[in-house]
């Protein structure tokens, strides 16, 4: 088979690239080693970015997602500092009077990713191959020659969009990006039913417990009284301190005074599963001759929040646009694709930089404690933090030590 564009991976990043290409009238082949619906270990939290990008590609996709029954609307975040002072921060200040347009959701990836794959199947421009793993890739004069291990499935592409996630061998072997423990998080996730005191407005909970810094423990409410519960900690810390994440989480649920009470009537559904989070706390080269890296394959996860779905979608859309430009110019060279990195880092870079600074600040629990203590008493500071969800410039303030100095002196 031959194609202008082959996308490896039909997760959020690959699916978004394919949908954007289709919208631009460009056909492509998408290959995924899994057969959908398939699970993906994740916190299942979808930020406002997800709907924004999907609506930008096609308003209809956004509407269908809004109507889907498998998701829980989420109106904000509860941050809990190491001193256990918590603060509820809504995504928008007027949410109690304006219930029509939730921007955040929690939904199991088995459902969300299948929703996107169903969208791929609606488009005649997209040929989707499921249950096929691309294991060989050879760059020749006339394009990339891709195939499975046995060579039963073969495709030649002018351009390859690599969206095969955190364990991408293409990223390692061709792009030369290696896993660095200080830019990588180890995460586990479990589903529980029957946890008490879940927020009725679907606020997601991030608990920065002392035993887990600079990582956190989360509880994300799902429909049907279930919740996604997990822990993510920097791999350099888990390695140095020999942390067993599963044991740490189960011990926390059994012994922490607050969690012990909230989980006492809960049931674990299925297994506790783990997976890696490649962080965007370091700038990397995301392209080469005839290829671009998307989403986790390009290490684009937010280092503070652990959010990667939104950034996978953004990079997928940018890569599709760059692919269209490359096809129009008939130029698939390394230098022509420089524009991809420029766009990704122009759009996502400022946010990644701020989050890298914030990730470093949570090493200082006293600072976090202080911020929460003040925020819980000071409405202005709380409102400012709400606005930070939309304004990167405002979030920059949080990454700047002077912000805290001013706060201290203005108390
Ligand atoms: C514990 C944990 C919690 C997380 N919580 C959140 C959260 O709450 N919110 C959030 O936004 N992000 C979260 N993330 C990050 C998020 O899961 C990822 O950023 C997101 O899945 C990236 O999407 P992607 O399309 O790049 O890759 P994936 O979603 O990993 O998709 C890659 C696809 O490629 C396919 N594939 C792999 N290898 C091959 C191959 N050789 N050939 C063909 N196909 C292949 C796979 O089957 C898969 O379908 C979390 C991650 C973890 C591990």
UniProtKB/TrEMBL annotation:
A Pfam family: FAD_binding_3
Family matches, as PROSITE patterns: PROKAR_LIPOPROTEIN (PS51257)
Stretches assigned to the FAD-binding domain: 2-326
Taxonomic superkingdom: Bacteria
GO MF, one annotated term: oxidoreductase activity, acting on the CH-CH group of donors, NAD or NADP as acceptor
NCBIfam families on file: GG-red-SF
Protein name: Geranylgeranyl reductase
Organism the protein comes from: Chitinophaga flava
């Amino acid at each position: 088979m031959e194609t202008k564009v082959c996308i490896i991976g039909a997760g959020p990043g690959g699916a978004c690239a394919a949908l954007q290409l289709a919208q631009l009238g460009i056909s492509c082949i998408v290959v995924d080693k899994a057969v959908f619906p398939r699970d993906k270990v994740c916190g299942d939290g979808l930020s406002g970015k997800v709907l924004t990008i999907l609506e930008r590609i096609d308003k209809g996709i956004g509407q269908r997602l809004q109507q889907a029954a498998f998701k829980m609307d989420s109106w904000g975040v509860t941050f809990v500092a190491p001193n256990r002072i918590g603060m509820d921060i809504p995504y928008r200040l007027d949410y109690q009077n304006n219930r029509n347009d939730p921007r955040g959701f929690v939904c199991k990836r088995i459902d969300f990713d299948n929703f996107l794959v169903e969208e791929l199947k609606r488009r005649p421009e997209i040929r989707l191959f499921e249950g096929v793993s691309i294991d060989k890739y050879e760059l020749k004069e006339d394009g990339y020659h891709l195939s499975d291990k046995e060579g039963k499935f073969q495709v030649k592409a002018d351009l390859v969009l690599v969206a095969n996630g955190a364990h991408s061998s293409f990223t390692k072997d061709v792009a030369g990006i290696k896993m660095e423990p200080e830019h990588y998080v180890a995460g586990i996730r479990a589903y529980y039913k029957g946890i008490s005191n879940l927020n009725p407005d679907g606020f997601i909970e991030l608990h920065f417990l002392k035993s887990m810094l600079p990582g956190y423990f989360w509880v994300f409410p799902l429909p049907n009284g279930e919740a996604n519960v997990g822990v993510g900690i920097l791999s350099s810390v888990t390695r140095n301190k020999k942390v067993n994440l599963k044991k740490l989480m189960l011990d926390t649920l059994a012994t922490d005074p607050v969690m012990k009470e909230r989980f006492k009537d809960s049931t674990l559904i299925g297994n506790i599963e783990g997976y890696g989070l490649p962080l965007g706390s370091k700038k990397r080269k995301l392209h080469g001759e005839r290829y671009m890296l998307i989403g986790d394959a390009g290490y684009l996860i937010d280092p503070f929040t652990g959010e990667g779905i939104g950034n996978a979608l953004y990079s997928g859309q940018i890569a599709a646009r760059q692919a269209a430009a490359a096809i129009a110019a008939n130029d698939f060279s390394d230098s022509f694709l420089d524009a991809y990195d420029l766009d990704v880092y122009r759009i996502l870079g400022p946010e990644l930089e701020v989050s890298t600074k914030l990730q470093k600040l949570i090493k200082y629990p006293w600072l976090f404690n202080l911020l929460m203590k003040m925020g819980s008493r000071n409405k202005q500071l709380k409102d400012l933090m709400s606005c930070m969800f939309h304004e990167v410039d405002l979030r920059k303030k949080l990454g700047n030590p002077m912000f805290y100095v001013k706060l201290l002196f203005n108390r």
